[in-house]
Amino acid sequence: MSEPLRPDICVIGAGDGGLSVAIGASAFGTSVVLVERDRPGGNRLGSVMPAIGLSAIAARAEAFRTASPFGIGGAEPEIDFKRVKNHVLEVVDQLKRNDAEERLAALGIRFIRASGQFADRQTLLAGDVPIMARRFVIATGASVPAPPVAGIETVPRLNYGDMLGIGQRPRHLVVLGFEPTGLALAQAFRRLGSGVTVIAAGRILDAFDAEAAAAVSRALRREGIDLREGARLTAAARRGAHGVRLTVEEAAGTATIDASHLLLAEAPRPETEALMLHKAGIAHGPDGIGVNRGLRTSNRHVFAIGGVVPGHGSIQRSELHAALVLRAILFRQPVDIGRSPAPLAAFTDPEIAQVGLDEAAARRRGAIRVLRWPYSESDRARLDGRTDGFAKVITDRRGVILGATIVGAAASEQIALWSLAVARRMTVADVADAAFASPTFSEIGKRAAIAYFGRFARQPRGFLGLLRLLG
Ligand SMILES: Cc1cc2nc3c(=O)[nH]c(=O)nc-3n(C[C@H](O)[C@H](O)[C@H](O)COP(=O)(O)OP(=O)(O)OC[C@H]3O[C@@H](n4cnc5c(N)ncnc54)[C@H](O)[C@@H]3O)c2cc1C
User: Fold this and answer.
1) Is the CB of 306 under 6 A from ligand 1?
2) What pTM was computed for the model?
């Protein structure tokens, strides 16, 4: 056993959350040890970027295929799958350089490649190196498990990152699960010419507004994806040298699906097993490590952030947690995870982006207003021929913005405004006052906000209220 290291901060896990804490803390001259069992980059570089990269290229194929109403092309695009993959691999490799071990060393971070496990309340073991840090930050994320069904261990299974390693375009890809990135990949492979089936035990995109999720279901089906919502995988077996045979229970009965490739896309499960949390007195459950609103665990020297914390994980949530923990550790400021909700986005086409309360959650809370505007009323959407979708803004009775959902083109770009609005408790009048570039998709959200004043315009006394609200 070597001499113990005694840094100010020890971060476990070098995904987005862990890297943000380590790099941020070292920039303030704090001594940092970063323990990672693999290469730095975590799920963002290993899974998300390859998936979104493939999806971006597939969108080009689809644009080509659907351009004839605008007087362009009309032919089926030729797809060279090897070149598609190589392009994405090249871009992801460039992104990896930013988080390389050499760069971390140059920033003064001591990087240890080992699996971390607690030995007691104050000590983490990274291989045979004991680390007794003033504060620990657990950022070990979450990973997609194989479902517990008969035969699953015997069949070839892929995760998101593996999709760039397969030799040929899948003849028939089965996506098991209904997480946003799995659906984006399902759509990408369909657009690149594969047959695609999605087996979803519940409704797809269940973290999103139901009406918005239904718009994505319709689009996926329209593109020829065999989307089986409410279907449950009960058995898996090998078929031939590389294929898989799946047995599925559905409302209509038992079905057999033969696939060339099987992608696991069920909800990720927090990575806590290897950490020996009980030795450090850190409470946890199947959903992850319990934290208070300041992200502290039941051991007050230990914080937990990102995918390992219960809730819907996302890159932006891990980064937000990292920023809050840095404030708590370095500046001893009180922080509160409830103050700035992280937006969620699904990079399907149409995209969905959502922040704060959705309509169902807001209705459960009582008096609210739901303001809507359809893409079909937007100049920009009509010019682009992308009129599917809507923006929905949720406010309280006084017009304070509680949440927003956008489904349609560029939804993930538009949600930034609404994240700010929810975090700062802005009102619809604040948004109505702001000038937006035109013609743009972001005007759709503004139109939804202005719809709040529609009822005032129809009532003379209310009209005076409207003038007051607009200042
Ligand atoms: C398949 C998938 C697709 C997703 N798609 C999106 C998306 O499109 N957009 C989005 O915003 N979010 C997406 N998410 C969620 C998002 O990727 C994660 O919530 C976020 O990246 C988590 O960041 P993190 O730093 O908390 O953990 P991670 O990025 O998971 O990093 C955790 C790191 O800890 C390491 N580790 C684990 N245990 C130990 C240990 N005992 N010792 C040392 N190291 C350890 C792991 O090797 C890993 O590098 C997706 C998640 C999954 C699983």
Assistant:
1) yes
2) 0.92
